[in-house]
């Protein structure tokens, strides 16, 4: 076994609480499938047979997945707040090989081999996936007209081939200047600094990185602590080499510190593989006669997707965007299941757009048109309803003459006759009165209206 | 050679014409050649000969530059001279460039008043010499570039973007560690890889970390590329307006140029050769490149200067011999050797990687490795010379050993039987009194000031201008996270002297910026941006910045007042300036140490100008009232004990004491107020 796959599905979805207050994030329906299905499907397509899923107990109970892979669920108790690195440390006894870590909110059609091959060819410490972030085309419900919060941008430095990850910094950590060490430019004189890249939170990590995490209990997050640490360590000298003429006392002290240094965790290859890179005529750099792999024992690589689908569902806007993209993805995957479920009863087939998904046992009345929308199972939609650009979850009832646009309607909601809803989020179990008219609102919980 | 040169010329001109077939033929391509460097990196050699005339492989540098310009299709060149302008003029008048057949018309502009490149460009504008895009080079550029492609790109950009691009700089790709990259002129560039636009230009100057202002990344530029693999050839294609309004951007590319609506672009060449000889290290590097034929077709045997004394035969291992060279029995020319006309070499010598000028006499059993001998040098028997420069008519006596990186300037006589340690510089010129950065020139070393040939025995001056490459290259290997201290890695003084130069140049530039700001009423915000970019270009620290700024502003009225220095007049001239530029100060004075630095600069200024002493109180008062300086800091400065006698004198000034007293009282009052 070359890789063990770990899916992180314990996060709460803190950036879209309106949705996740009633439905845990891994279970959010995207294209009528729970969000967690997508990373698992990605792994299954790549040929994984076993996956470790880190999640919370109540989630697993509600989870109903059809997968051929063996899922090994690891639970994290509800009241402990664990970061991603903590989670990985939690399961370190299960980790026997290099790991592929991914987040449960990743929906992508990337060829996983591209990331893994980078890892293999360069004998890398880390390889990861990024994609140019696209501007959300539509604003999330309840957010229209509001100023978007200015996000802290990430600065990513890659070399001329666009694969080697040289530099990483977040705007929040920088003063008015971006500081680049000379030693990096000495080795990689051309550095492209990219902004506007989205990290897909998919990481291939060497086994020794997990060992390193076990020793370094201060690191809690993969993305914000471990990865930048690894990127920085590429161009520094191991502390073991720095000690030179120090006297013994200091030497001993340093040794204790050195145990926390990433370099001390790097294990030499077994004897058979070790000479392989030296004997091959391939190398990953040119212009000199150095070792096959570019100097430095820690090497980080990134695969930047140029096209294709890659999105992370961690805000309401991205959730809507993902639902919009998913029908295409599902078609490309060539699943047996059709977009419109066999048990759905639709009176006017012609009124349902080809890019809409309709779940099982859903009833749709006469003269009802459905465009660019996803409708869950066991819904009842009466006559003369117009649904455009909507996400409707399970067991929702929509009565005659309603008009819904660009809205998200959660489980068991009831929308009475003639309601007109535009750009709204309707929470679970909500009931909208007859001829209600709502624009750009978030209606959740106990009648609490969010300020607009 | 001649055929090749003209073919190239034809291609260059044809290409330019071919790009715009319908329009009228473009005006002839012009060039501005600045035959002065405005620094002293070649002192004391440059004392005897201007830098542009220093021989590179027995041909004056300026000839390479002119050949480059001519080959690339330039039809009119303006040569700007300052230092030793008569010699440069005489040299050029004798050369092929001033013959009737020359396709490149050379015109001279001389003035002793030029202090910087900016001055030259102002003059270009004032005399309206150029009509269209022109090439700007200094007289120490060696290159075989064909700029026509860069020129086309430049013109296209100017057409597309309505003249926002004012300049295209030409760079040569060479990775870090390349021997033609010297630390002094090493640069880091941030560019927009989509448009080739230069966003940031910074000299590295031994920095461990490079800082890029965030404003570079704020724009809509998706992919900013940071490049450390470029060598600035100091060749640029400029538009006429570069000389009119924004001369300063030449030195300070960055924010300023963006804000003023101008852009600078770049062109990178990978195949061709281009280098700027800014110091002796580059001299050595470029000389050996010429001998090793990297600058083809500008090789010694081509005799492109068409000088009958410069004909060489080329044989394998890059051995070039002039006419009438005699080589003694058992002498070996190993590789990469150029020997000028009329030179006589004794027996059993071993010579490699060296250039020997015309009419030199070399004795027996001499070993030369990496030696650059100019004309008329006499070397006696059993001499060993490594990596050194020996200027005109030097006499080296028996058994002298020159360790690497020595310089013997012209007419020096050394020996017999001594060893010069590494980095020795010997000159007949006394170090200049006004040059404060050469203070390690020891007076007791017996420098003979007489111009006649006198035997100098072991005259040694350890100078600031040495060939010191090995030390520089080995430095980078031991990089680490913990950042070993810089001081230990740079044992010699080389790093210090250019910085001093830089502060001076920087001060001039700031002065120029402010002058222009005053004349053209440029807003303080723009001035701040320009000064900031200057600050980056010269790597000026914040505390130096503060001192320079205070000094420049205080000196500003002096120029306007000229002779009638009177404290009353002075102050009335200064007051409006201070009021205008208050935001400028506020931008830089932030921490209390900045306040103190500003005060020190003010103190220094008034110490230098005794006659104005009386107005110090008024000036400080103004600073205080404009809320530039805080009272605590002024009081703090006033009470500093460890000042010089003069400083104490200054503090005894009555008005100043009154002012301080007033401040103290005011403070007491205000603190009383707080308590209530």
Automatic annotation (TrEMBL), chain A:
Entry annotated with the keyword Transcription regulation: no
Function: Acts as a component of the translation initiation factor 2B (eIF2B) complex, which catalyzes the exchange of GDP for GTP on the eukaryotic initiation factor 2 (eIF2) complex gamma subunit. Its guanine nucleotide exchange factor activity is repressed when bound to eIF2 complex phosphorylated on the alpha subunit, thereby limiting the amount of methionyl-initiator methionine tRNA available to the ribosome and consequently global translation is repressed.
Recorded superkingdom: Eukaryota
Subcellular location, record wording: Cytoplasm, Cytosol
A GO-annotated cellular component: eukaryotic translation initiation factor 2B complex
Cited InterPro entries: eIF2B_gamma, LbH_EIF2B3/5, NTP_transferase_dom, Nucleotide-diphossugar_trans
Family assignment from sequence similarity: Belongs to the eIF-2B gamma/epsilon subunits family.
Domain Nucleotidyl transferase: 5-138
One Pfam family of this chain: LbH_EIF2B
Keyword Flavoprotein: no
Residue ranges annotated for the EIF2B subunit epsilon/gamma LbH domain, each copy included: 345-435
Keywords: Acetylation, Cytoplasm, Initiation factor, Phosphoprotein, Protein biosynthesis
Sample GO molecular function, one term: translation initiation factor activity
A single GO BP: cytoplasmic translational initiation
Complex formation: Component of the translation initiation factor 2B (eIF2B) complex which is a heterodecamer of two sets of five different subunits: alpha, beta, gamma, delta and epsilon. Subunits alpha, beta and delta comprise a regulatory subcomplex and subunits epsilon and gamma comprise a catalytic subcomplex. Within the complex, the hexameric regulatory complex resides at the center, with the two heterodimeric catalytic subcomplexes bound on opposite sides.
UniProt name for this protein: Translation initiation factor eIF2B subunit gamma
From TrEMBL, chain B:
Transmembrane segments: none
Sequence ranges of Acidic residues compositional bias: 432-442
InterPro entries noted in UniProt: ARM-type_fold, eIF-2B_epsilon_N, eIF2B_epsilon, LbH_EIF2B3/5, NTP_transferase_dom, Nucleotide-diphossugar_trans, Trimer_LpxA-like_sf, W2_domain
Record's keyword terms, sorted: Cytoplasm, Initiation factor, Protein biosynthesis
Top-level taxonomic group: Eukaryota
Gene Ontology CC, one term: eukaryotic translation initiation factor 2B complex
Record carries keyword Signal: no
Residue span of region Disordered: 1-29, 428-455, 467-499
Subcellular location field: Cytoplasm, Cytosol
Principal location class: cytoplasm
Keyword tRNA-binding annotated: no
Molecular functions (GO terms): guanyl-nucleotide exchange factor activity; translation initiation factor activity; translation initiation factor binding
Biased composition (Low complexity): 1-10
Entry-linked PANTHER family: TRANSLATION INITIATION FACTOR EIF-2B SUBUNIT EPSILON (PTHR45887:SF1)
Quaternary structure (record): Component of the translation initiation factor 2B (eIF2B) complex which is a heterodecamer of two sets of five different subunits: alpha, beta, gamma, delta and epsilon. Subunits alpha, beta and delta comprise a regulatory subcomplex and subunits epsilon and gamma comprise a catalytic subcomplex. Within the complex, the hexameric regulatory complex resides at the center, with the two heterodimeric catalytic subcomplexes bound on opposite sides.
Descriptive protein name: Translation initiation factor eIF2B subunit epsilon
Species: Phasianus colchicus
